[in-house]
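Comment thread on ticket #2218

A.B. wrote:
> Attaching the input chain for the structure job we discussed in standup.
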Amino acid sequence: MTLMTDPSEEEILHARIRDAWSDFPTPHPDHLQQIAWAHPGLLEAFAGVAPIDVKTTSNAFQGCTPLLDLRPEAAAAYLGPFLLSFLQGAQDQRTLGIFVDLIPRAHLLTCLGLESFWRCTIGPHVAPRAASTLAAFIDYLCRGRRDFAITEANAETMRTLMAIHLRPDEARARR
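C.D. wrote:
> Ran it. Output below, let me know if you need it in another format.
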């Protein structure tokens, strides 16, 4: 007999992110080629790969920090894999007692704390369904900030940027 358990918050968010980011088209390889010299592993991890199909456990992905250098529409598309990687890292952290996703975690948190990333990438290029999912992710991050070594000031910055840059419908949906 198998016992059924309720899915964890990470599992629910993971499913929502996969669903919302499945709407994003695969960015054109030229968008990646222009910055490949600065990001070893970029082409291997992302070129010709739909955002939802990026292998977030690969060495190429784990060592790559492209979101601030990509064109905004490509960065919005590839934000999804970084959200998924963070959730997997959170589950691993709970199991192992330490986090092992240092580079993608730091890159994601840096991006989510920058007003320019929200203004140029998230605001104009993240569709309503993905924006609503991102709002749920930000709420999850802020509630678990101590576990993720996020300061109250950084959590407040992310909340403020979310309130400013997500479309009004998404801001209402997260409440």
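A.B. wrote:
> Thanks. Noting for the ticket: The chain is about 65% helix and 0% strand.
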